[in-house]
Amino acid sequence: MSVTTILKTENRHWPAIFIAFALSAAPFLTTPPARASTDLPAASDLRAAVASPAKAGGPLVVIYSRHDCAYCEAVKRDFLRPLARHPAYRDKLAIVQINQDSAAPLTDFHGKRTTHAGFAADEKIGLVPVVAFYGPNGQRLAAPIVGARLPDFYQSYLEAAIEQSMAALKPR
After folding, report:
1. CA distance linking residue 31 with residue 37, whole number of Å
2. Does one domain contain both 54 and 24?
3. Per the domain annotation, does 40 fall within a domain?
4. What φ, ψ does residue 163 adopt, rounded to 5°?
5. 3 lies in a domain?
6. Sign of CA dihedral 116, 121, 122, 123
7. How far apart, in whole angstroms, are the C-alpha atoms of residue 138 and residue 76?
8. pLDDT in tens, 123-168
């Protein structure tokens, strides 16, 4: 029997074939599962956020991020989230996230109301990720880490900046 003959004589089977195909393709047509979020606590009041680590002699660590930034996700997942849980640092610093592309309200270090995007612009944040280290009055304590850099060395950059920040906060 030829293909043409089968197609002409078996028309009654096409709806069943179509349904079978549609059901088998359904798993591929659904929305992919959402990625696990690597977001850190969103900054809302920087003056309040810096108070606790400042008392412990540590900095407020701020990651400037964007919702569509894969490098930001990697820095948060691979370095900042583990740092927040690390016994040597968890009681000495706080880590918050400021989204460069967000209109979320934010109170800056001096009590001025702004937004995440506005504060990032005031801080001259261009490309992200940027990890910055702040003291009680909003002063930068160490040079910010700009970009994702080399993953093999990122942890040492981070630890050096934290140690420099802690040294800057020690009474003289």
Report:
1. 17
2. no
3. no
4. -65, -40
5. yes
6. positive
7. 22
8. 999 999 999 999 999 999 999 999 987 888 999 999 999 999 999 9
Looking at the predicted structure, is the pLDDT value of residue 90 above 60?
yes
Residues 65-93 have a mean pLDDT of 93
Q: Is position 37 within any domain?
A: no
Ranges assigned E (strand) in the chain: 60-65, 94-99, 105-107, 113-115, 130-134, 140-146
Query: How many domains, the chain?
Result: 2
- How many residues are present in the chain? 172
For residue 42, the SS3 value is strand
Q: Are residues 51 and 103 in the same domain?
A: yes
Cβ-based burial of 7 (10 A; exposed 0-12, middle 13-18, buried ≥19): exposed
